[in-house]
Write a structure and sequence with these properties.
Radius of gyration: 17 Å
Number of helices: 7
Helix content: over 70%
CATH superfamily: MFS general substrate transporter like domains
CATH class: Mainly Alpha
CATH architecture: Up-down Bundle
Mean pLDDT: 87
Shape: globular
Structural class: mainly alpha
Number of strands: 0
CATH topology: Growth Hormone, Chain: A
Number of domains: 1
Amino acid sequence: METAVSGFYIGNTFTLSYVTGRFDLGRNVPLVGLLLAGASESLGLLIFAPLADRIGKRAIAIGSPGCVVLLAFPFFWLVNTGSPGLIWIAMGSLQFAIAGLYAVTGVLLSELFETRLRYSGISFGYQMAGLLAAPAPLICTALVHWAGGASWPVATYLAAIAFLTFIAVSLASRRERVAIFS
């Protein structure tokens, strides 16, 4: 889940300021990229949700952060070209990969909790992911500053978050429902 929220913040929020601050492209390039990323994510949801019914939601939930790990560095390689088309491809590709996790998050979270705790458990988990992911654009900005303008620390940060999500989803998908105060 953390990949979905952090990836969204990095791919959309941070990338907007990164592109406008690094290249002389104007604000329209990342804004068009944002629109294309949203369309790509919507398409991904339409593809991954039915696919999860066929091959299994756990496969999609594990594959999505796995793809983000693989895309983290190519995302910034494409963005760093300064070419509007490649920036748009990068933004769309990342959000498409993240859409897989969004497509199955509700079902996976609901399976972790017994009925009497489900709503609170899902809400708590989702809000904690948002809380932990909220500083991602600030962290990315600090990493770029620390690296003298290089993007590799941000790509490493994105890959690390996706890898942790990969491990968490792998472990959570093997568990049965959580019984709290039973």
